[in-house]
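In response to the reviewer comment on reproducibility (Comment 2.3), we provide here a single inverse folding case reported in full, input and output, so that an independent group could reproduce the run without further information from us. The C-alpha cells appear first.
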C-alpha cells in the first residue's frame, strides 16, 4: 500500500531510499515495482469513418493497455512484425521502447510512414498501460497538466460544400446545436472555374469563390466560433499566396496545408508572405519531420497527428520544439475515442495546445465505442482515472469490426 502523501513530507520522518521507491509510491502492480513484462500485442480494426486500428499490449501482471494507430494499409501487420521486439520487455520504459522499435525497424520505414504509425499505436497503448500500473492518468506521465479540459474543433461538411451559404448554415448548426466554438471547413472544393487541377494554379474566379466561402462562414459565426480552412496540399505557391492574402480581412483561425508538404522553402515562403495564419504538419512524421518546419518558422501553427506521428511522447517532444519558437499546436485527429482521448492527455500536458480535432460528427456511434464520456460541449475533460481513463465497449467494437477481424483476447 502506498504511503500517504502527507507522511512523505513529515520533516520528522526518516526514510530510506527504498521507502521512496516506486514500490511504495502507489504502484498498483501487486507483484511489486518493476516486476512486469509484456506478454503479447494484438490489433483489432474497427470500421469507423476511417479504419481505426486499435492496439492492445498485454502483460504478465494481468493489466492491459489500449492504444490506437492512425489508419494505413499494413499497420496491423507491422504491429505484429514488431511484437517480438517488445514481448518480455518492461512496459514502464516507454521512451526506451519507442526508440528500440525505431531502431529495430530502421530498415523498414521507421523514418516515416506506416511503420511510424504502427509504433504510435503501441506507444499509446504503453501510456495507457503504464498509467494503470502506476495508478496515474496518462497526462501525468508527460509531466502533469496545464489545463483540466482541452478544446475540440469540429471538422464540418455540407451536401454542397462549394455553396458559401450552405457552409455558413452548417457552421451555425454546429455552433448552436452541437455546442462547438471551433470549426474547420474544406476549402479545396470545386468552384466551377477550374481548367486543370493538376497544375495547382488557382484562377481568379476560384480565389474569389473561396474567399466568399470564408467570408460567409466567418461572418455568420463571428465571435461565437473560430474557423479554420483546409486546402489539403493542393496549390502552387503563387496561388496559395493570392488565396491567403484574399482572406486576410476575415477572422480565419488558420489556413491549413495550402501547398504540397515536401518543399520546406515553399512552405516557409507562403507562411511568411501573409498575415493569415498558416498550419501544416499532419503528414510529416516524428520530431525530425517537424524540425525544419519549426526551426525555419515555416508554420504559424503546427498540426501533428498524434497516433500517426510517433505517439504521445513524440508529440510532446514536437510541442516542446514548437514552444521554443512560441508556436501553438493544433492536433490533427481522425481517430476513434481512444486516440482522441490520448490526444487530449497530450493537449493537457503541453503549454502550447490550441485544440484537438474531431472528425466524426456524422458517425452516430462514435462516442459509444467507449463507456465514458469523451467530448462534451466542444471540450474533453481530461480524466483523472489511471491511464487514458477510457474503457472499450466490447459489444460496440464487435458490432463494427472490419470484415474478417477478430476481437481482442481477454486480459
Ligand atoms: Mg488537414
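Designed residues, in position order:
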Amino acid at each position: 500500500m502506498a504511503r500517504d502523501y502527507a507522511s512523505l513530507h513529515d520533516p520528522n520522518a526518516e526514510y530510506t531510499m527504498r521507502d521512496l521507491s516506486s514500490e511504495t509510491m502507489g504502484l498498483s502492480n501487486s507483484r511489486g515495482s518493476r516486476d512486469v513484462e509484456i506478454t503479447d500485442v494484438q490489433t483489432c480494426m474497427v470500421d469507423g469513418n476511417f479504419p481505426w486500428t486499435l492496439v492492445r499490449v498485454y502483460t504478465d501482471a494481468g493489466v492491459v493497455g489500449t492504444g490506437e494507430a492512425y489508419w494505413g494499409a499494413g499497420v496491423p501487420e507491422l504491429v505484429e512484425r514488431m511484437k517480438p521486439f517488445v514481448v518480455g520487455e518492461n512496459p514502464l520504459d516507454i521512451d526506451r521502447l519507442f526508440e528500440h522499435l525505431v531502431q529495430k525497424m530502421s530498415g523498414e520505414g521507421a523514418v516515416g510512414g506506416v511503420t511510424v504509425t504502427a509504433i504510435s499505436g503501441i506507444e499509446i497503448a504503453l501510456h495507457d498501460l503504464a498509467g494503470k500500473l502506476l495508478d496515474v492518468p496518462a497526462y501525468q506521465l508527460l509531466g502533469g497538466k496545464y489545463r483540466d479540459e482541452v478544446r475540440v474543433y469540429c471538422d464540418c461538411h455540407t451536401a454542397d460544400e462549394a455553396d458559401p451559404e450552405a457552409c455558413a448554415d452548417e457552421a451555425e448548426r454546429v455552433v448552436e446545436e452541437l455546442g462547438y466554438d471551433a470549426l474547420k471547413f474544406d476549402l479545396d472544393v470545386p468552384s466551377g472555374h477550374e481548367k486543370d487541377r493538376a497544375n495547382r494554379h488557382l484562377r481568379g474566379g476560384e480565389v474569389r469563390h473561396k474567399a466568399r466561402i470564408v467570408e460567409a462562414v466567418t461572418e455568420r459565426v463571428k465571435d461565437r466560433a473560430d474557423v479554420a480552412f483546409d486546402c489539403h496540399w493542393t496549390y502552387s505557391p503563387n496561388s496559395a499566396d493570392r488565396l491567403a492574402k484574399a482572406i486576410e480581412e476575415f477572422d480565419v483561425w488558420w489556413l491549413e496545408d495550402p501547398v504540397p508538404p515536401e518543399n520546406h522553402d515553399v512552405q516557409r515562403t507562403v507562411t511568411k508572405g501573409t498575415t493569415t495564419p498558416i498550419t501544416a504538419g499532419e503528414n510529416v512524421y516524428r520530431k525530425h519531420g517537424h524540425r525544419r518546419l519549426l526551426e525555419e518558422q515555416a508554420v504559424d501553427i503546427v498540426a501533428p497527428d498524434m497516433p500517426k506521428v510517433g505517439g504521445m511522447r513524440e508529440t510532446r517532444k514536437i510541442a516542446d520544439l514548437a514552444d521554443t519558437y512560441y508556436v501553438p499546436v493544433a492536433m490533427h485527429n481522425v481517430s476513434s475515442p481512444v486516440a482522441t482521448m490520448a490526444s487530449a492527455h497530450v493537449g493537457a500536458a503541453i503549454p502550447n495546445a490550441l485544440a484537438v480535432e474531431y472528425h466524426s460528427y456524422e458517425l452516430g456511434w462514435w462516442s459509444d465505442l467507449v463507456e465514458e464520456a469523451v467530448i462534451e460541449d466542444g471540450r474533453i475533460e481530461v480524466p483523472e482515472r489511471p491511464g487514458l481513463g477510457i474503457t472499450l465497449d466490447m459489444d460496440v467494437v464487435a458490432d463494427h469490426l472490419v470484415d474478417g477481424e477478430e476481437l481482442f483476447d481477454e486480459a
